Amino acid sequence: MNIAKSNLLLNQQNFSILEIEIVSDYVSNIRSSVFKILSILLDSDYLELAKQLRRNIFYNLKVPQNDWRTIFINTPFAQPESNTLAIYGEDIAGAISDINNNLKHVNSFGNPLNKAFYDFLAQCKEDENCVVFTESKFKDDFQLLINSFGISSLNIKVISTISEYKELEKFNTLLIVGSIRIDEYSAIPNFFLRNIKFHRLAQLRWSGQKNDYYAFLTPISRLRQLFSGEAPPLPSIEIQKMIVKFNCDLPKSVIFQEDIDEFEVYKKLSLDSFPALCFKLFQGKSVLYSPNSKIIIIVKESNKASVQHMKAAEAANFVNENVLIVSFDIPDKYSRNRADKAQCYQSIWKSVLMEQDFDTFLGELERSNIGLKNLSSCVSDWCEISDNVVKAPQEKENFLILLDCLKIDILANVGINVDDFGAWAEAAWGEVLSSRGEAISEGLQHSSEYEEQVYQAINKLIKEHSNSIDPLIKEGFTISVNSEKCDVELHQLQSTEYGYEVPKKLLKKIITAQESRFYR
After folding, report:
1. DSSP symbol at 253
2. Which domain of life is it from (predicted)?
3. Is residue 346 predicted with pLDDT exceeding 80?
């Protein structure tokens, strides 16, 4: 499939993007210090405080209010008399002091985002129709701010929902604050990019915040690009870039860090992820475990070795140079629930879906009388492969219609007769239903049982080689579990640290030490 034909902007005439990048030394230092505080709070028992501070920084990054005074609102840091040093420690106290020093300059000179927002609106042509999109919770703030500008010659409308956008006729400019992305931190819904009603997309973004041009591809070709690992093509439209600098008179020695992309950082540094402790390994590696999950370790004592299967929090007490962390992969049939044994259903029909010509397939779906609107958006969702709920039509009838439109290609992929396709489709629907709530715990139970069997097999092997243990545990070994091969890797433990917050998918995975520090 020709990627160029998948470009959503290919047929857009007289369309352009204006990127206005805002640079400010003072704001850059505030952003860096806030990130430092958040990282430290996550190491303590101040999760709710961290969440509030994150909400505050997001507000200031997205709303061009007059100043940044709200950065500490609803936090103890807003009270100058609070004993921050005694309660939160020297690092947080120092970061707060740095923030307050920079806030004085920002509040004195004005918020750069506010200035850039006003300057853009002021230079728009008279009678130009300009639509500002923001989140619903920020809509009133934007409307009050625009009213205070007193730009009467410009027709400005603030919207915050897709429904409001659908009601609009074609207009000149859509203005957003933030990055263009395909994740939850995007400043603009993908629906707008698939249904363009404007001639120019103007964005205000802070230095460091990055755009993602995957958003300008059709859903199917976008996913193909992601899976292939190739860089996205630039959209076939004019992109104008402008850098505006405010409050940039700090000496380089005073600047902490420039160009932080908070949306990328906070997406990885999730405040809603799992608490974990980090087992630091030699050769620049680490592995993260939730404190109450079980871990298998081998403890060397003189010329002997013993195998322990215990909670990770307990294993942390064994830190010394003679402890080895056991690492192995759990086969899919043990780690997934009953429906996920048939994970091939999702992977097969979605891979077939992604190979379809987008426009042609949408037409085929419409002619099949599928009972859904906004098919373009729906197909985009269905293409995404998930480890949790299988994204698919909500109703069985629509799901079977979807598979029927893919029938020929599915048959070619799975190698079944046409007479067996009905049973295959029913089983695929069963996978969808199960992913929505049935048999979820079964996979966890099987995973735990498999881990116990690995422990027993290793324990047996260690006892059999009690007189020649060193060669065995030098580089790892292979054991048999339920008549199947299981490759066991051994990693020497260097140290253990508490205070990590990590996504569930990273638990028990061997990663680099540099990556693990990101979740500290």
Report:
1. G
2. Bacteria
3. yes
State the pLDDT confidence band at 221, using cuts at 50, 70 and 90.
Answer: low
Beta carbons within 10 angstroms of residue 470's beta carbon: 10
Q: Is the pLDDT of residue 90 over 90?
A: no
Task: For the beta carbon of residue 412, count every other beta carbon within 10 angstroms.
Answer: 10
Distance CA 396, CA 103 (A): 56
CA distance 19 to 244: 11
Q: Which residues contact 370 (CB under 8 A, 6 or more apart)?
A: 393, 398, 401, 402
Query: What are the CA-CA distances from residue 139 to residues 133, 146, 171, 389, 439 (Å)?
Result: 8, 11, 19, 32, 42
Percent of the chain with pLDDT over 70: 77
Provide the residue ranges of all domains of the chain, joining segments of one domain with +. Answer: 3-21+112-245, 25-111+257-268, 274-333+442-517, 338-435
Domain 3-21+112-245 maps to which CATH number in 3.40.50, 3.20.16, 3.30.720, 3.40.190? 3.40.50
Give residue for tokens 């080689």. 465
pLDDT value of position 465: 75
Mean pLDDT of the chain: 79
Q: pTM (2 decimals)? A: 0.53
CA gap 383, 220 in Å, rounded: 7
Residue 6 pLDDT: 40
Contact (CB, 8 A) for 356 and 402? no
From residue 1, give the alpha-carbon distance in Å to each of 4, 50, 76, 351, 510.
Answer: 9, 46, 56, 14, 37
**Length of the chain in residues, anyone?**
520
How far, in Å, CA of 71 to CA of 32, rounded? 13
Q: Are strands 16-23 and 198-206 parallel, antiparallel or unpaired?
A: parallel
Instruction: Note whether 316 and 277 are within 8 A (CB).
Output: yes
